[in-house]
Design goal:
The chain is mainly beta. The chain has a domain at 3-49 and 59-194: Beta Barrel (OB fold (Dihydrolipoamide Acetyltransferase, E2P)), CATH 2.40.50. Helices cover 4% and strands 23% of the residues. It has 2 helices and 17 strands. A 7-stranded antiparallel β-sheet has the order 9-16-10-13-14-15-17, with no helix packed on it. Residues 281-286 have low confidence and may be disordered.
Length: 286
């Protein structure tokens, strides 16, 4: 991927950059795989705002992605093109199967037009884009679109540049090492796709101005200490006072190093080592 940094011709261009999407080879989406995506504005079915600072943005349609690839076992597919997807950070690849059906999958690094892919329960050649059970994948390879439950579809390692390294297998569990430092176990019968998700420069793009954020549906954010006491836990008081409490969200979730994972969750026992906090990681090691 490539990033173009604008010259400082105006205040909006200063420090701004744009993704050139050099991997993209197909400009228009497949109409048969598009569905309408109505805007919610951060509101639930009662009309109440449940997610702050969302609304507006450019109109877009959802691309149906095949995260399972189980009902196409053994059928060879050809990559028609790599496309941009406005609904996710990664690019997507359009596949045409031998029976004539077309489907979208996440585009890993190194996937090109004309490549032939296959998904198989019995295992296949361990090349980029092929999907198979983790029990059939050689250890040490990078994988993405990993299932946590057999047959449920990919749940982790789906964003741009993400991957998991298959460390080892023992019995009915396989150990994965994630980029965050977390080490967790998944069933060996669960499926994964070979390779690392593409569009790795996605996090390097700097919007540069508020207008580009509004096109993405991001509305302005008001600081918690600038709100009233009944609008935010850190609001109220005279001047810039946060009430002698650590920074938190509107719902009280800690913003710096606080755990957000639900206690007693069934999959907690499959996490062998939790990720290290980026902010306080060095302090914990000392």
């Amino acid at each position: 991927m490539a990033i173009r940094i604008y010259k400082r011709t105006t205040a909006g261009r200063r420090n701004a950059s744009v993704n050139l999407y050099s991997e993209v080879t197909k400009k228009s989406p497949e109409k048969s795989l598009l569905v309408a995506k109505p805007k919610k504005g951060g509101r639930n079915h009662h009309g109440k705002i449940t997610t702050q600072c969302r609304g507006g943005g450019a109109k877009k349609r959802y691309r149906k992605i095949d995260f399972r690839r189980r009902d196409k076992d053994g059928i060879e597919a050809t990559v028609i093109g790599i496309e941009y997807d406005p609904n996710r950070s990664s690019n997507i690849a359009l596949l045409e199967y031998a029976d004539g059906e077309k489907r979208y999958i996440l585009a890993p690094i190194g996937l090109k037009d004309g490549d032939r892919l296959v998904a198989s329960e019995e295992g296949a050649e361990p090349k980029v884009g092929n999907s198979m059970p983790i029990s059939k994948i050689p250890t040490g390879l990078l994988i993405h679109s990993v299932e946590l439950v057999r047959g449920k579809g990919a749940q982790i390692c789906r964003s741009a540049g993400s991957y998991a390294r298959l460390s080892n297998r023992e019995g009915r569990w396989a150990t994965l090492v994630l980029p965050s430092g977390e080490i967790r176990q998944v069933p060996v019968e669960a499926r994964a796709t070979i390779g690392q998700v593409g569009n790795t420069d996605h996090n390097r793009v700097v919007l540069g101005k508020a207008g580009r954020a509004r096109h993405l549906g991001k509305r302005p954010k008001t600081r918690g200490v600038a709100r009233n006491h009944h609008d935010h836990p850190m609001g109220g008081g005279d001047g810039k006072s946060k009430g002698n409490r650590p920074p938190a969200s509107k719902t009280g979730v800690l913003a710096k190093g606080g755990r957000t994972r639900k206690h007693g969750k069934n999959s907690n026992k499959r996490i062998l080592r939790r990720r290290v906090s980026k902010r306080y990681g060095q302090l914990k090691l000392k």
